[in-house]
Write a structure and sequence with these properties.
Distance between the termini of chain A: 60 Å
Largest sheet of chain A: 8 strands, parallel
Helix content of chain B: 40-55%
Structural class of chain A: alpha/beta
Order of helices and strands of chain B: EEEHEEHEHHHHEHEHEEHH
CATH architecture of chain B: 3-Layer(aba) Sandwich
Shape of chain A: globular
CATH superfamily of chain B: P-loop containing nucleotide triphosphate hydrolases
Number of domains of chain B: 1
Largest sheet of chain B: 6 strands, mixed
Number of helices of chain B: 10
Largest interface: A-B, 23 and 30 residues
Structural class of chain B: alpha/beta
CATH topology of chain B: Rossmann fold
Shape of chain B: globular
Oligomer: heterodimer
Number of strands of chain B: 10
């Protein structure tokens, strides 16, 4: 096989041609096949069982077809045209902020990001430099380790905690789950691993912000969070700063396991490149996020603020297995220009007296299209299950679209299910009232939108909430007038 | 020398994008310290006039001039007109769900201050100012926490409008049917608030149907407005005469 020889050549003697060759060796040819997967696994020095899992997933993926049931229109992805292994990119680093894109800097200013952090985000300096050299990250980790908390990259976890990874990886989202999850299971690059031992409450919010900027985790991110009995953790994913990414397709998996009396709060602010005004470019975000409340009285709470990506396909779900377990989903999704989002949640009630709550706020502007798609599934054994769903849509202008598709499947008579949905529009009268009191039209939109999604924003950790509020205003710029 | 606040000359305006003409050749000058009242039959376009002056996008000026404090109003956005000191107490203030009254008021006060190069008030300074005013207009702390105008009674809405007048301290205020839906006590609070604000440096334009409000806030000039312009101008006696005989004779005159 010609290709195989090529790959062997590339992955062979790294140092033969010195430093330059090493860079070449970290770039594999486009396309996907078993050799590429073996190469990824080898580069990451993975154990045999993980390689076997990747291959099994890949073979299954070949039998699957891309789903098209979502209300989304986009060009078909050519999976053979993608590169599945990109080592940290050797990009030309800007020497100072003067060399950085002006619009990017303006956005940072509007978000109120301090200058030092701006430099790190724009890639002028390393994140370490911002947080006072390596010390902060190290102290941070050491403090967590004292309590037995593991917070590291999934690659590190594979090396240092193989038993935990082998036990839980794929236990919530099996590789057979869906097309994109299957692809991720075959080719995932990196992500976070969090383990909170029995009885421990994480003393601080764990944030990818501290880690993710240090290395390019690539387009197939994999996150695993395990909360043992009686533990608690609040985890923050993403960053309010705009994320410019060359990779068009993102297919991540987040798995969360919650044991007896444990609680996990997972907050996301997603601000990937949404494409330009005409809808050119932009990230396709096809994510599978799922939490299993395995223990009794366990609790998972998803909070998401989605403002980025050209196309979003995302349904953070809760599998409520343990009796009395609780699942919550709080979501704000904003689409502007030509953005499309098909997003919602799934609440699978299996245990007795399980409770779930869905609060979804969708804001559409410009020519964007948005769908809330949610499933509330009460199984026969879920006696006493309860769900409350509230889906509110706010339209700005008259060229956008908003759709609500709630699925309810109930096989237990004792279940109590409530669903409320509203659709409203920011009226000329409301805008004029604000303007008449001296408030600019754009600020008035921000004020009204922030009021509309206050209920969800309040669920975000304090500092994150303030930034996310500003982010909403920025996302809606140009949506009026 | 009297300071001209508002000067309208031969103003024609109507529904935007070539719609129906509603203001047809209006002339009106309001100087600092003056109180003007505009009275007229239903459908005369009195509210439209207030929207044209404040810049609501549904309406457009076709010809004529309107100057406010020496600036061409037509060249300014609604928020700029407001920040310059033009205030409209609306006939039916709109509900804005999700936005707390208190937060809205702070936002508005600071937006106007910012425009006029004044330092913005922080939360503590603003609360101090707001609490004093709220007491005056019998606006409870609970009401300030509620979403703006949502579920407010007619009287509550009007008291909140005058509270905003008092907070923003405009140069010229237009009261569009400020008395509609008010009981005697609320009317008293509203008119006291307006009288307290009014001084030799600012002006007032009252749009009303009723003598009640004019008895509380005494106008220097009373204009009868019909078919898009002022038909006749007089003083308080004109308003009293109207109450007896109605608009009929004046509407005839306008034809």
């Amino acid at each position: 096989m010609a290709q195989k020889t090529e790959i062997e050549d590339l992955s062979g003697d790294k140092y033969k041609y010195g430093f330059t060759t090493q860079i070449e060796a970290d770039t594999v040819p486009c396309g996907l096949n078993e050799d590429i997967i073996r190469l990824i696994s080898a580069k990451k020095n993975e154990p045999e069982w993980l390689l076997e899992r990747r291959l099994k997933a890949y073979r299954h993926w070949l039998t699957m077809t891309e789903p098209h049931w979502a209300k989304l229109k986009y060009d078909t992805v050519d999976f053979q045209a993608l590169s599945y292994y990109a080592a940290p990119k050797q990009k030309v680093q800007p020497k100072s902020l003067d060399e950085v894109d002006k619009t990017l800097l303006e956005t940072y200013d509007k978000l109120g990001i301090p200058l030092k952090e701006q430099e790190a985000l724009a890639g002028v300096v390393a994140v370490d430099a911002v947080f006072d050299s390596v010390s902060v990250a190290t102290t941070y980790r050491a403090k967590l380790a004292q309590q037995g908390i593991i917070f590291c990259s999934i690659s590190e976890a594979v090396q240092n905690h193989p038993d935990l990874v082998q036990k839980y990886l794929g236990s919530v989202v099996p590789y057979t789950d869906n097309f994109y999850a299957c692809l991720n299971s075959a080719v995932f690059t990196d992500g976070s691993f969090v383990f909170i031992p029995k009885g421990v409450k994480a003393p601080m919010e764990l944030s990818t912000y501290f880690r993710i900027n240090a290395q390019n985790t690539g387009q197939f991110e994999r996150t695993l969070i395990v909360a043992e009995d009686d533990s608690y953790v609040s985890y923050l994913e993403g960053c309010t700063a705009p994320q410019r990414d060359e990779n068009q397709l993102h297919a991540a998996i987040v798995e969360i396991v919650v044991m007896n009396n444990a609680e996990v709060k997972y907050s996301t602010v997603q601000n990937w490149y949404p494409g330009d005004k005409e809808g050119k470019g932009g990230v396709y975000n096809f994510v599978t996020k799922r939490a299993a409340c395995r223990g009794v009285n366990s609790k998972i709470s998803w909070t998401q603020v989605e403002t980025g990506s050209a196309v979003t396909w995302k349904y953070p779900s809760c599998v409520l297995q343990g009796d009395n377990s609780v699942g919550e989903f709080y979501s704000v999704a904003i689409t502007n220009n030509r953005q499309q989002a098909d997003t919602g949640t799934k609440m699978i009630h299996l245990g007795k007296n399980t409770r779930s709550k869905i609060i979804s706020k969708g804001i559409s502007a410009g020519f964007s299209n948005q769908t809330y798609r949610g499933l509330v599934d009460i199984s026969a054994g879920a006696t006493g299950a309860r769900n409350y769903s509230q889906c509110d849509s706010l339209l700005i202008g008259s060229t956008c679209g908003s759709h609500t598709v709630p699925y309810i499947r109930n096989r237990n008579k004792s279940a109590v299910l409530e669903h409320e949905a509203t659709t409203s529009k920011i009226s000329e009268e409301q805008l004029f009232y604000c303007q008449q009191r001296g408030i600019k039209e754009e600020d008035a939109v921000g004020l009204i939108v922030n009021g509309f999604c206050k209920e969800v924003m309040q669920k975000l950790p304090m500092e994150f909430a303030i930034e996310a509020g500003k982010l909403i205003n920025i996302s809606l710029e140009g949506s009026v007038g | 020398m009297t300071q001209k606040l508002l000067e309208i000359k031969e103003l024609y305006a109507g529904v935007a994008d070539g719609g129906k003409e509603i203001v047809k050749g209006l002339n009106l000058t309001i100087n600092a310290g003056e109180i003007h009242a505009i009275m007229g039959p239903n459908g005369a376009g009195k509210s439209t006039l207030s929207y044209v002056l404040t810049g609501k996008s549904d309406y457009a000026v076709t010809s004529g001039e309107m100057q406010f404090c020496g600036q061409d109003l037509n060249a300014l956005k609604p928020e700029e007109r407001a920040a310059l000191g033009l205030f409209l107490s609306m006939q039916a203030p709109v509900e804005i769900p999700g936005v707390s009254t208190q937060a809205f008021l702070k936002y508005a006060v600071n937006a106007v201050r910012k425009y006029n190069h004044l330092p913005e008030l922080d939360a503590a300074e603003f609360l101090k100012l707001l609490r004093g005013k709220a007491k005056e207009f019998e606006v409870s702390a609970d009401m300030l926490k509620r979403e703006i105008n949502v579920g407010f009674s007619g009287g509550e809405k009007k008291r909140l409008e005058i509270l905003q007048l008092s907070l923003l301290q405009p140069k010229l205020a237009i009261l569009d049917e400020a008395d509609s839906g008010l009981d005697i006590d609320a009317l008293k609070i509203v008119s006291q608030g307006v009288n307290q604000w009014h001084n030799a440096d600012n002006g007032l334009l009252i749009i009303t149907h009723h003598l009640d409000l004019l008895k509380q806030i005494k106008p220097d000039f009373v204009h009868i407005y019909a078919d898009g312009r002022i038909i006749t101008t007089g003083d308080m006696t004109l308003a009293e005469e109207l109450e007896k005989n109605g608009y009929k004779n004046y509407v005839e005159m306008s034809k």
